[in-house]
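Input record (one chain):
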Amino acid sequence: MTLDEKTEITIPLKLLVSVVTFVIISSWYVFTTQNRITDLEHSLKILEERFISYTKQPGRNTTDVELLRKDFEYLQKQLEKGSK
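The corresponding structure, as predicted from the sequence alone:
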């Protein structure tokens, strides 16, 4: 048996439709997944930039407890000055 231009191949129509449908659905899935990944990467990059800019703001390098302690000490000193 040799394969040449005159060799006839038959394929059932149902199988052909199934294969074409599979290819279309697979392509759609891959395209949609890639778009979602790109969108998530973009969102993550924006959030990272916001976080970095937030941490660079003055006073963001100390914890809230430290800030409250400093405020308390300042107010305590002000009260001591006012009672003298």
